[in-house]
Predict the 3D structure of the following.
Amino acid sequence: MTDLIQEIEQQEYIINMGPQHPSTHGVLRLVLSLKGEIVKNVEPHCGYIHRGIEKMCEKLTYQQIIHLTDRLDYLSAHINNAAVCLLVEKALGIEVPERVKYIRTIIDELTRIASHQLWWCSFGMDLGGLTCFFYGLRDREHILDIFEETTGGRLIQSYYTPGGLMKDIHPNFQKRVKDFIKYFRKILPEYDQLLTGNVIMQARSKGIGKLSLEDAISFGATGPSGRGSGFACDVRKLHPYHLYDKVNFKEILYQEGDTFARYKVRMDEMWESMSIIEQLIDNIPEGDFTAKMKPIIKLPEGEYYQRVEAARGEFGVYILSKGDKYPYRVKFRSPNFSNLSILNTIVPGQKIADLVAIGGSLDYVIPDIDR
Amino acid sequence: MNNEELKQTILSILPSAVFEENTQFLTIQIPADQIHDFAKKIKESETISFDYLFCLTGIDYGDSLGVIYHLRSTKYRHEIVVKIKTSDRETPAVDTVCDIYKTAEFHEREIFDLFGIKFNHHPDLRRILLDESWEGHPLRKDYIDEVNIVER
Amino acid sequence: MGVKIKSMKDADFKDNETLELFKETDGNIFTTTIDNILNWGRSNSVWPLTFATSCCGIEMMAAGAARHDFARFGIEVYRASPRQADVIVVAGTITNKMAPVLKRLYDQMSEPKYVIAMGSCAISGGPFFYNSYSVIKGVDHLIPVDVYVPGCPPRPESLLYGVMQLQRKIKAESFLKKQFKKNVTTNE
């Protein structure tokens, strides 16, 4: 009898954290192999929202690709659009007006703050603190109001276009952004009071899910997940675009590599984003909101690559063009796809509850994994 | 390091590399069977040290299939693009680099899924984005699917 | 901010010609009163299943958050298990790989169950209709849909309106009559 019990205990217990699950943040399937409550092996199965965007882009013009890049990582929609616009502008050798650069930088940083707010509220919710959900979304609505007044959409805007912007900003834009910054500077310490110093949260995240620097470089884990391990990969510092070489901001790096470090990186990034916006909001120059572009854009033959710093890591666009008005091959280097591959390295040996905390700190957006 | 010195170092590692003109990054074409040794050497070399593979793309040129590696060095901050081609469309096979760059494991599964290029010695080569029972490789240029695709 | 939105009149809920067409009128007064009470209870507490695939999921979360609160319509709690849920709000694109999962979830829900198709991807494939090889062009190829909420993504207020339409549809159902009819047909 004891032999039978021993044999049963040796076998692996396989459990499916299926595509429909409250804490996988989307349709990601994780097949866990457990021993008691300790996870021995995690196998992520993705592809449940693979929509074939790369193949669709081969039959769309360059202005139409913008509408699809919006829907890849919908929480940093503007930043994804900026990648395609910058690529087309650099390939054609077009210089956009200064006004456009200022507005694009400000809107990109607002998008980054909105994305981190949504990350914070779902991270708190995963650990059990439901109040964070309501606080984060309440403050995100302020940013969405600003976007809606200028662009017309809350989540998906398609505001940037190769050459500049679709329309000029609303006259209220500057005032609303300044009011938001004043409001949010008082609210962000409340977030710290609510969650950062909490004993339960610290016990569940300090020392959990350590990712070493060498692994982060080898796996290509960029963004806050990589910077929590000391990987200096901020594209805004290494390959500056827009106005990032003219503003003053720090690159946030922590060396521990655990869940708490990744949490702190994102909280500090919100402060840095606000300081970038404050440096730019009063000095928007007058001018055109778009450069003169032909209605049909044809890129000269060749290959191009453009990278930007999305809220989750380095987002890259690779286009091979044969001189047509449609691209020959479009490839999106998505940050979440590389961040997903580290799961089987950092989770084994820890409990299922730790898996939820790690998944929350890596901040996946599943349509970006599957494209 | 600037492009000239990089060229010399790479030619000393692999003399049969062919450089392309007028590209954004320094681009080299190498024979498909050399990729594993070449990648190992450029990662471990102290002078160039390419340790960060940031983009791995499959591509269908029409008559041949190819794989493109975008590499960067975190120490020296220079970049390079390595291209390989195989003209076998029925059973294309290339050596894997996932023991050198761990990110290649998932990316090579995706290239196998969408283009059909097999990677030798890959620990777990199966479809990742599409269903296990899907037939065909959608991103190839000659992929026809009457049932699912609504043409415009 | 200066725009007055007209609210729906109470009379629109109670006597409406389309609603009258739904209802079968040949019940005695006892069963119709019970029907009314049951329907009032059922329609004001539809509990949804946590199901969101892509961008529309964020607008659904925003509709549940503090500004547009849909708990005041009775959608109080999200149930993670399909056995305990009343409505499934399909928010997001459904692909070929996800289709058997959705069908299995729908089959696991217990009667009476409803489906709201939110967003243009769930209605007809949305922006991915042309040239995509793995998107299902409309969730009504898989499961029967009760309410369609258009938009890409629909505003939270549109989702609230869709939920109100679902409540009207539930109020028009004759619960006892449906049960009685089922027994009669099986006997034959």
